[in-house]
## 1
Amino acid sequence: MHRTAVKQVVLEGVLDANDALAQANREKFDRAGTYVINLMSSPGAGKTALLEHTLGRLHDRLRLGVLEGDVQTTLDADRLSRFHVPLVQVNTDPGFGGECHLDANMVRSGISEFPLDDVEVLVIENVGNLVCPAEFRVGEDARVMVYSVTEGEDKPLKYPLMFRSADLVLVNKVDLLEHLDFDLERLLGYLDAVNPGVERILTSARTGQGVDEWCSWLERRGARQ
Amino acid sequence: MHELAIADSVVQIAGRHADGRRVTKVHLKVGHLRQVVPSALAFGFELVAQGTSVEGAELDIEEVPVAGKCRQCGAGNRPTEFPLRCGACGGFDLAVLQGEEFYVESLELEEV
């Protein structure tokens, strides 16, 4: 048997399959008139705590829904269930030992039974991770990052992909600034260096600082839809 | 560690284009702006390829450096670290022209 080697040109994007599913999700969201936020951060930055404030404040002003992404457990969904908004939990565990991010297919499964028509703004709380979620579009209209001041000033330089793709950065836990050797101006300078002019709001899920401003941002985005 | 998911995608693309033929090499282009660790990707690729027509294929990763053009002064740039900064005027507003690539460029296949 004679074997010959041949070269075949492919030119196919590694994430094309995901991006096509993300586009299909996006069309579904658009048909329902739902504005979609992909909420990303490292673990423990305060995504769920900020969402608790957000749902508490906006419940009679904006019809919100939440898709919770976690490797395991329904702990976050349990925390949010008292707000009685449409809520779905997606666990990424069935992947290779638990995927570190949500991808478009997981979100597609998550929203298959979701009452999108009743939701003006859907917040997709991604798996806590500063690297992987940035590579996978899920059909979102905007990417919002929660970044806590306990993480140090230099992370925009170390994890540039996510910071570059953010439309808004919530700089969280600012109530702790007085206890930390944290240079806020330096962080904001790095943010601007990586993503010039990106919107930012200083927040504290503990004291409620900045939460009104964040809620107004959400309401403006929801109204546009 | 999203490299496993990425590796899975690469193996699927290669398998589909190979159309039953055995794949001996996969040529992948990865821009420096992607957050992909080549060694982790190569490890994942070997694992995911097992039992497919891509098993045993070499993964050839070509890294593509960043190139951009300054929106302020128009100078061409090849920054090697973050933040991306114009070497001519020091500004941070660079239009990225190269470095975001992430695709399977070609395959080497065995034909019987």
## 2
Amino acid sequence: MLILTNINKKYGSHEVLNFSEWKIDNGIHWLKGGNGTGKSTLFRIISGQIPFKGNVDLNGINLRKEPVKFRSKISFAEAEPQYPLFVTGEELIDFYLENRKAEKKEAKELARYFGMDDFLGNKIGSYSSGMLKKLSLICAFIGNIDLYILDEPLITIDVASADTLYQLIKEKAAQGKGFLLSSHQEVNKDRLELNTVSRIVDKQIVQS
Amino acid sequence: MLRLLITSLAREFYQQHAGFFLIGIYILFGAVEPSQLIGYQKALLLASISSPYGMVIVFVSWFLYAIKVHFFVKQRLASAKYNFIKEIGGLQKNIQFKLWLKLYSVILLPIIIYVPLLIGLSVNYKFFINIISILIIFSALTFSLIWFAYQFVTFSFLGQERRRPEFRIKIKKPFATWPIFYLIKEQPLMLLMCKVLSLVFFKSILWMFADIGNDIRILLLALLASVLCHAVLIFTLLKFETEYLNFSKCLPISMNRRLWYWVLVFGIILIPEWIFVITASCYDLYSIANSLLFGLSGLFFLLTVLYIVKLNMENYLKWLMFFFFITMWSVVAHYYLFFSLILLASCQTYYLVMFNKTDLRGENI
């Protein structure tokens, strides 16, 4: 279970988030909302990327007290991933495998799943935006993760890859993993059963 | 438009090369007592014009400075953030030339100040060939800079894609070395210029105090000059980490491991300086060990300052001035070992404590 308490986040004097509590269980959770409402900021807070006021706990592990252990349990795929252009997809994946203590065959399987196995030896600088997004999704699914945070996972990827992603999310959710998704596009509810749908309204998270 | 060019290009050029100018000002104005300053300047200028070697050194320095300016402007123009400058391409050729001339008059100010002085002295001492060569070289450099800028802004769309020779040797790049590969692959000129300047300043300081003999403090002052030459390089590395390695912030990497990555990067970056130090110290182990500690702590300080000022270049410069004077005093007063240890320990503690509390990316939002 993910519990956020007394969260406050400001950029300079601009307050983006301010709420007392938000809890979600395992399952698939969709965060809706337009640009600038604070979805990505919320995801960055949960993934331990940016400083904030308040507390974040995942299955009893506190982000502030045990940041390394916490980070080993979550996975974050950014909306617009940025990686060094001179490294190859394979080198990036190897780095994730090393840190998440995962097997190489797992990454190979994911690459095949997303149709990226032929391109992993190429430098990231040669990738299209769709390929870059798929690479970030492969990296996100590596390892034994409790909570997957996917920011705009459907943008720039083709229809076939979106199908693959839906399938993967369903498989992982069936194993008891949690998902926190954000998307401008409507999530196809026939293909992905959502446990909750929330939105950020006036710095608070409201369940729809 | 000129105002925009000056604030975006000239101002940024001076900001980014603050370490370089700081050392230059020290060599030209701070190395002697104020009462001897005019005599010292005159002696330097006379040494330049009275022999062909002197003139060659002056022209080579101007040439290096002009190359630095050229690549700085070219890099900015190639960046999407500076696309607005390409609007100049719609202006008439002579208007563009005038605009670039005015901009380069600001950027080339350190050279322009010395041109009339060198010409005046050459007239006074009847070195007429020097006058002609100074005018020709200076005009040629300025015109070349203007011409390249004009060509780049107006005709860059005609340029052919460069084809680099492909070497198929595969080198596996561990994560810790990615900042080094970034410098080699994407910022090779900055790295080269940084190392050339570092060597020039290192040797200049040794040469300035050559009469003092084998003193570790001279070695450390030379290394301080080299460290300051890395100010922009460290800024670039932290920008790279903030933009391209941000994904690693949500990976389970311990703080100690992150710290060791930086130690490794700094250790590799300073390899040429380690070689200068080892040879200049006549293989004295005490001097070498002190220099290693001093160099690493200096670069760590630059990194820490960038965290403190959150990549704000103007505030970074103020800290560089402070660092320069406090370090000079510590070295001259024989406190160098204590200073290096305190500096390294406090910078590392700051990094360990503040890494998770600082959002360098968010500051730019």
